Amino acid sequence: MAEAHQAVAFQFTVTPEGVDFQLSREVLKQIYLSGVRSWKKRLIRIKNGILRGVYPGSPTSWLVVVMTTVGSSCYNVDVSMGLVYYIQRWLPEGRPYRTPYTRTLLSMAVFSTGVWVMGIFFFRQTLKLLLSYHGWMFEMHGQTSHLTRVWAVCVRLLSGRRPMLYSFQTSLPKLPVPSVPATVHRYLESVEHLLDDEQYYRMEMLAKEFEEKTAPRLQKYLVLKSWWATNYVSDWWEEYVYLRGRNPLMVNSNYYVMDLVLVKNTDVQAARLGNAVHAMITYRRKLAREEIKPVMALGLVPMCSYQMERMFNTTRIPGKDTDMLQHLPDSRHVAVYHKGRFFKLWLYEGSRLLKPRDLEMQFQRILDDPSPPQPGEERLAALTAGGRVEWAQARQAFFSSGKNKAALDAIERAAFFVALDEESHHYDPEDEASLSLYGKALLHGNCYNRWFDKSFTLISFKNGQLGLNTEHAWADAPIIGHLWEFVLGTDSFHLGYTETGHCLGKPNPVLPPPQRLQWDISEQCQAVIESSYQVAKALADDVELYCFQFLPFGKGLIKKCRTSPDAFVQIALQLAHFRDKGKFCLTYEASMTRMFREGRTETVRSCTRESTAFVQAMVQGRHPNEDLRRLFRKAAEKHQNMYRLAMTGAGIDRHLFCLYVVSKYLGVESPFLAEVLSEPWRLSTSQIAQFQIRMFDPNKYPKHLGAGGGFGPVADDGYGVSYMIAGENTIFFHVSSKFSSSETNAQRFGNQIRQALLDIANLFQVSKADG
């Protein structure tokens, strides 16, 4: 009742003399502070908008141009070539402009501002042109051409000194639309070795018919969209691949991210959360103020930052036909789940962000709360783990009014979701299964202790270990990885703990406790929740996850093979898959296209003709090592070239996907596109980014390594593999499959990956001792 009393701004009573008002000073103070906060944010946004809008210019550069113009006039030099005099003639004759000196100064300011704006436009367009050059990506390491060196100097000169997060957005080039013949040619090349002669001839005829008859019309519409839209792929990719999907998000779409696994800062669950949540909100504040530096490839080429905009205060809202992403400009609380109860935890006291010790106290209050769940509350989140249509119908029927709507709003409008688990999970190098159990807990939990619709759920285990479960529609894995690196680095090297494992500082005991959310869940609604839970549980129980740390070597020794670590691992995956299944399959590797504005991902079809030739030679076992090394290097070069083409907008699958969308809008049937888009990815892979921000020196702290993260299998009879080449000496793998498939076994495949890596290393006689 204390919260309800404090929420009343004034009271009144009726007396014989009239109405007597009693104002609450505390609430009026909070209203005043709320207004001050709002205006501060508006002013920061306005300031950032101006600085971003004139970048790489600045107020200082404007002043320099003005002073140069004025100073030159003192020496009777007219740098404007008469334009100042021309502007002066057009100034009104009013009182402010009466004196000639005032009119001259104003004319010079107008002229200088025009020159300054034109300079900014010229610099931006030049920078955009320079960033459209990707020749540097295709040059051999250590063999930089003179053209690329000149290009790098020009980019550095035009990039400015202190860019804000979104400073380069308008300077990034648009994603180009590849030509249809080039895409079709690359597609046929990618499947020729996977089909027999008859199948390939049939696909070749379909491709030829498509290229000659159907594609030109579709391509025209796609080119038109590329001229009009910022990115011709991203909005359709988000809508049709993610938001229109009707299958459960859990396992099928959401992915997980692990904590540091070789070091531990504290065993106190509430304390670890206090530091982590404080670091996350600090990151959010930096994000809002654009104080985070943009990610730069090679420290030179800016990556698009637009995906970061919806990291916080974002929820996926279910719909019958399509979902939508609800993003709010701000949120002052997080939603918390513990032992079947939902809580609302405020992050601020007035305008001040709660300190880590205060947040620890609030989380501990939730952990100590003995109240039982309300009827139907415990498994409520299973609605977000089941089918999307069922969740949309339930949301409309049972959560559109009353206390249920208010409680659901508290969750959906939260900055993010926090799950306090009663289990303990961690990685024990002596117990390999511990990493897989940890991954399973993050991927799906018990199917009702994660809110799978939130942009991300921060998961806290009883022993202080953390992790994330992340919704995929709003952004790709490197974006949440950027946040996670900041959180782990801030927790370990900036905030710290006491000797007893608690957050530093003293708590404020007068803070009101977290608020229990109130529900009125009918028996009919409980039946729907139970149905969703059974769907989710069947899905979770079918997932086999095998996570392991590969210890024999890492990136450092792979480089001795004179190839990229990613190509090395991808070719090893092909070898492992062939040994596991006795055949090759269409393989998906995610590549990013963030060198273009609003770019997301492209597919690298990493099962190439060259990699299959190497694998077959390895399996036959009768080729000399010199031949095998030659085949390997050829496969690695092909893979690297495919990856570079994907990154530079010359991929295959996004172009064909967009042509398919256009064909559906036009009502045009294309057997070629229908077949291409229906091909299953039985091996889906992804490398996990690391060290995007340098919070600490990995050479000085080699054990401060996360284990990456993982996802569920894309095909029912396939594998999902994510890997993180963690520093110089180790690699983490996350392999998923389904128990219901007789063709797959995640642990068996994981062991094949281990052996394939060792066998390829032996070709080059690379061992840890060589390091």
From TrEMBL:
It is an enzyme of class 2 (transferase). It is found in: Mitochondrion outer membrane. Residues 175-755 form the Choline/carnitine acyltransferase domain. GO terms for molecular function: carnitine O-palmitoyltransferase activity. Pathway: Lipid metabolism; fatty acid beta-oxidation. It comes from the Eukaryota. It is a multi-pass membrane protein. The keyword Transmembrane helix applies. PANTHER family: CARNITINE O-ACYLTRANSFERASE (PTHR22589), CARNITINE O-PALMITOYLTRANSFERASE 1, MUSCLE ISOFORM (PTHR22589:SF69). This is Carnitine O-palmitoyltransferase 1, muscle isoform. It comes from Capra hircus (Goat).
